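Hi,

Apologies if this is the wrong queue. I'm a grad student, and the batch job for Transporter YycB from Methylobacterium frigidaeris produced an output file that my downstream script rejects. I'm not sure whether the problem is my script or the file. Here is the sequence I used:
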Amino acid sequence: MRSIEREPGAGIARPEKAEAGFHPVLIGLGLMLVAFNLRPALSSIGPLLPGIRAETGLSGALAGALVTVPVLCLGVFGRLAPVLVRRLGPDASVLAALVVLALGLVLRGLGGVPLLFLGSVVAAAAIGIVGVILPGIVKRDFPDQAGLMTGLYTALLCLGAAAGAGFTVPARRALDLGWEGALMLWAAPALVAAACWLPFVHARPLPSASAARPSGRLWRDPLAWQVTGFMGLQSSLAYIVFGWLPAALVDRGLDIVAAGLVASVSALAQGVLALVVPTLAARRPDQRPWVVLVISLPLIGFTGLLVGPLAFAWGFALLLGLGLGGCFGLALTLIVLRAGDPRAAAELSAMAQGVGYCGAALGPFLVGIVHDLSGGWGLPAALYAALCLGAASFGLLAARDRTVRI
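Support response: The file is valid. Your script probably expects a header line. Output copied below for reference.
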């Protein structure tokens, strides 16, 4: 199906929650708290991965699977989000997913490799569902500030990733925990987020019939597939970093604490362009210059960390983090901008994240295999560069001034 030119303001619904008595600031704070909890479950594994492999004997392939399976679950279970929204409404669906997220985080800390994988799957399923729902909520409640709100919650999501990467090992040592207890700690903020989101639960659908069953036309729209391709490939870039950066730095000579701090600085830097890029990109109809910028930075940063001089590790980490934050913020912004109304945003979000994350799961797994086969980080760096080029290709197509048909 051929995409059409965007008509400003077409199909925009006014915020419903404001009419229900919720101040926009409170809604925004709730969204930020939810967003913070969507990455520690994923980024906290990487710093502990060397210790987990030493204690459990995980091979490189299985360690790659430990990183890959949760990413795959983001896509597989993200497809359940529209079903839950039709039955419960978006707000109740977010609340239920937060509770499931906390359960998964507890499960993976109960001990043993099977529960580690099971808990990771449960937690990732919940994250995938929430991630699909949030763009529709932003389009519904903040139609005139979509870029700003997308940037804010993306920045908090990146902050959560930084917290998972940087604080897990120090917390383990400070509290004298095993890797199981260190992973379980992240259930606490998820429960706090659930408690704070509870007042917003009204079990109602998105406006403009967005809770209706998908029409199927979106799956025949080239623009929708371009947005999906960019979402999937940029996600693969990020999850390769989450899963393998600390281990790669340890292999190259850094101790585990220093490697975790480098990963944390990189994740923390994501918040800068995650906030700036959506806010500025949404002001113009064409986002192609932003695609070039945000893809170039991780290409330089991650390949530098894998094969470049470690004396420049902090600089490479900064470039990497800025680029990944910008990539993710731009991907979410494209979902909102390429959709003409909240219903389209909800359907495009489900497609882009559901399909995109399934494809993204291959990245960390392939890096693990290539690293095992080569015994070094040169070939993984080349693979990462190829994925960057693929992401740029899809992004340049998705960033044109068009909207999808549904």
